[in-house]
């Protein structure tokens, strides 16, 4: 067979705090019966600004890409950790990457570039460290709707859609109206946050194994509070996760050598999530601080000056027609591929931030499509939680086969029309037995028994409740939305 290989084209939408790194040029010879000169295109790339300091992006910076074989966890020849040089709005691969004939190739990316990422394991466990205050980014080849897409020899052009791996915490500090004191705080400190973790890029940016604690310091440009009309603003990048039990503190000091010289207060417990901004209002009263609950918004990029990094941070899946009464999403909420576990949500919480849900009266028997529906709130449009009857329809009218995609275990659910979806065994936060079981939220609630859930394991799958009407209101579930 004649071996005709296509060149890989790359268009990018990137952003965040980018710093200069070193890419070693690789003089690699690739044999092909026909080679097409490599062309690199950029998509809507503008000058950006640093998130924390507000300074202009360096003209030279780098990020890395991995080009894969379809849904397999294998890199194509020449596609391992390729350095991309970014210069004045133009992205250039430091070597040619040729696509194999008639093979679907997803492309995954990360920032900042690290030449030591020599195997695919770094896509599963990329180190992140909060002490550097780096805006770690991860991305994938996407279409105009930011859905994961593939390139191939007949369609070699890819656009990389980046997301923030970190969460952004903003402290807006002001004086109470009856406080006449003048304050000077050149150091704003966030204490006892997670120091380091690993980022699973192939699983939609899941944070793994947070360890250690760190104290972060910001130096606001205006640190003098003379009256109640002005304020100090300090920004921090933090590793996503629930702060419960971590005793995160805000400290304002005039001496970086001692946190005891300033004012301190506990930061309310928050479930920080990647790509979101958490703004706390801090009021200095006479002798003490008062820190509000966070206002949670999407991490907007208009303050950064341009380069797009996926403000919503929710990649919307494809609606798969299984010949049933509803269409099923091709992946979980919070994921960006069918095998991604996604995020975990509390039943009845449309914000995705709560650790438990509380109702003044008895919970409704079905929240699907209502104001309590997380799928409706986050994915919008016609997306919603599946009901009990829709889960039963999926169970009874489709063929379920336990399988493994790459390293991810779960069920391939195949309809009579030949279409299928993959449901990964994503476990639950309190169980953390990934690959062995999964618990999927429905919109249905059984009084006295709890949330109706899809339960999967290698030896079976069923629709059931926990038998505890309160457990479902405090236990995180994965979500697979549906639409009419």
TrEMBL record:
Gene3D superfamilies: 2.60.40.2630, Fimbrillin-like. Pfam families: Mfa_like_1. It comes from the Bacteria. CDD domains: BF2867_like_C, BF2867_like_N. This is Fimbrillin family protein. It comes from Bacteroides cellulosilyticus. The lineage of its organism: Bacteria, Pseudomonadati, Bacteroidota, Bacteroidia, Bacteroidales.
């Amino acid at each position: 067979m004649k071996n005709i290989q296509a060149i890989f084209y790359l268009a990018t939408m990137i952003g965040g705090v980018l710093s200069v790194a070193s890419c070693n040029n690789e003089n690699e010879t690739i044999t092909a019966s026909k080679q097409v000169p490599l062309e690199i295109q950029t998509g809507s790339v503008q000058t950006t600004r640093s998130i924390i300091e507000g300074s202009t992006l360096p003209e030279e910076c780098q990020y890395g890409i991995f080009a894969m074989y379809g849904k397999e966890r294998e890199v194509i020849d020449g596609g391992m950790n390729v350095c991309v040089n970014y210069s004045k709005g133009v992205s250039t691969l430091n070597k040619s990457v040729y696509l194999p004939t008639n093979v679907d190739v997803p492309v995954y990316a990360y920032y900042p570039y690290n030449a030591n990422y020599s195997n695919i394991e770094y896509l599963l466990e990329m180190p992140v460290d909060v002490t550097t205050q780096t805006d770690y980014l991860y991305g994938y080849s996407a279409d105009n709707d930011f859905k994961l897409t593939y390139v191939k020899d007949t369609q070699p052009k890819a656009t990389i859609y980046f997301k923030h791996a970190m969460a952004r915490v903003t402290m807006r500090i002001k004086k109470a109206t009856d406080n006449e004191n003048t304050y000077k705080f050149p150091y704003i400190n966030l204490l006892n946050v997670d120091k380091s973790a690993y980022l699973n890029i192939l699983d939609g940016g899941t944070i793994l194994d947070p360890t250690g604690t760190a104290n972060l310091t910001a130096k606001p440009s205006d640190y003098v509070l003379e009256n109640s009309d002005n304020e100090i603003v300090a920004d921090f990048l933090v590793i996503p996760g629930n702060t419960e039990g971590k005793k995160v503190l805000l400290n304002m000091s005039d001496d970086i050598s001692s946190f005891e010289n300033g004012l301190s207060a506990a930061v309310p417990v928050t479930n920080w999530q990647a790509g979101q901004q958490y703004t706390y209002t801090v009021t200095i009263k006479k002798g003490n601080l008062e820190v509000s609950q966070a206002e949670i918004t999407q991490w907007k990029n208009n303050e950064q000056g341009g380069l797009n990094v996926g403000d919503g941070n929710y990649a919307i899946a494809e609606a798969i027609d299984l010949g049933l009464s509803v269409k099923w999403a091709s992946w979980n909420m919070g994921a960006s591929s069918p095998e991604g576990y996604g995020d975990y949500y509390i039943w009845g919480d449309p914000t995705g931030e709560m650790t438990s849900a509380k109702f003044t009266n008895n919970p409704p028997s079905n929240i699907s499509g209502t104001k309590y529906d997380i799928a409706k709130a986050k994915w919008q449009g016609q997306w919603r939680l599946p009901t009990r009857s829709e889960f039963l329809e999926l169970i009874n009218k489709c063929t379920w086969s336990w399988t493994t995609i790459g390293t991810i275990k779960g069920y391939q659910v195949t309809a009579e029309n030949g279409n299928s979806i993959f449901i990964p065994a994503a476990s639950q936060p309190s169980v953390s037995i990934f690959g062995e079981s999964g618990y999927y939220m429905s919109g249905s609630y059984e009084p006295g028994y709890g949330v109706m859930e899809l339960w999967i394991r290698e030896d079976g799958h069923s629709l059931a409740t926990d038998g505890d009407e309160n457990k479902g209101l405090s236990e995180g579930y994965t979500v697979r939305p549906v639409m009419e």
